């Protein structure tokens, strides 16, 4: 097995910061420093240059990282072969998800997956779509789950679940009893929107452009990078917004908000698995991807 010191070293090299590495590994910063010092004493050389709060690999550090990553890949391959031989799936799985998928889809799916694969330890990290893409490319994540298709030569994606973007208004809003509104009506409403880089925002803006609607004419009063905060703003009457039907479900069921669709404008999309074609796929990751492809995900979500 890869030593704790090398695991810490790889994480510090990835995060370029001792505090961030400590947070990622759920360790204290002194514990991180001790592991790095142990390696530096063993190899009798500095592995990192410390510059303010950040660190940079030295030439020796670059060499060690190359071999440490190779050792880590070999260990993963060995574990997969042993699990194939014994039929017992275990290991760790680093999953990254964009905000809608991470907050409203993955907790339920991970729970169902864990019921079948109890010895797979899962970490779920939530970012916007752009950052998930970056972390999959850097091999920090085993698999990403995002709200839009990502175009990159080294990334593969596979659709797993249908979704639809809908307009959500407060239950006290004049539109709350309506099923549809026009694009012209939309332009006059105070609008709360996700941050740039959000998959939901990209899909929404592209749908407006395809409908030959001027995105700049939206009365955007606030950008918020957190769906829960957007929902609170809607409920308080601050404005209206657009979000996944899955994210809006609890608000509608709780009679705090209402869903409205835009006349003659459909906003379907699919949630996608995102994989780095150059990243070794562990047995745990392979079973997770197969589970996502074969399970009735809508049924799992509708039961919650």
What is the element layout, followed by pairings?
Blueprint: H1 4-15, H2 18-25, H3 29-43, E1 48-51, E2 54-57, H4 59-86, E3 91-98, H5 99-104, H6 106-116, E4 120-127, H7 129-137, E5 143-146, E6 155-170, E7 180-181, H8 183-187, E8 190-193, H9 199-210, E9 219-223, H10 227-235, E10 240-244, H11 245-253, E11 257-262, E12 268-276, H12 283-294, H13 297-302
Parallel strand pairs: 3-4, 3-5, 7-11, 8-9, 8-10
Antiparallel strand pairs: 1-2, 5-12, 6-10, 6-11, 6-12
Helix pairs in contact: 1-2, 1-3, 2-3
Mind explaining what this structure looks like?
- This is DNA-binding transcriptional regulator, LysR family.
- Belongs to the LysR transcriptional regulatory family.
- The protein is of the alpha/beta class.
- It has three domains: 4-85, Arc Repressor Mutant, subunit A (Orthogonal Bundle); 90-161 and 270-303, Periplasmic binding protein-like II (D-Maltodextrin-Binding Protein, domain 2, 3-Layer(aba) Sandwich); 163-268, 3-Layer(aba) Sandwich (D-Maltodextrin-Binding Protein, domain 2), CATH 3.40.190.10.
- It has helices at 4-15, 18-25, 29-43, 59-86, 99-104, 106-116, 129-137, 183-187, 199-210, 227-235, 245-253, 283-294, 297-302; strands at residues 48-51, 54-57, 91-98, 120-127, 143-146, 155-170, 180-181, 190-193, 219-223, 240-244, 257-262, 268-276.
- Strands 3, 4, 5, 6, 7, 8, 9, 10, 11 and 12 form a ten-stranded mixed β-sheet that branches. A two-stranded antiparallel ribbon has the order 1-2.
- Strand 8, helix 9 and strand 9 (219-223) form a beta-alpha-beta unit.
- Helix 1 (4-15) packs across helix 3 and helix 2 (18-25) crosses helix 3.
- It is elongated.
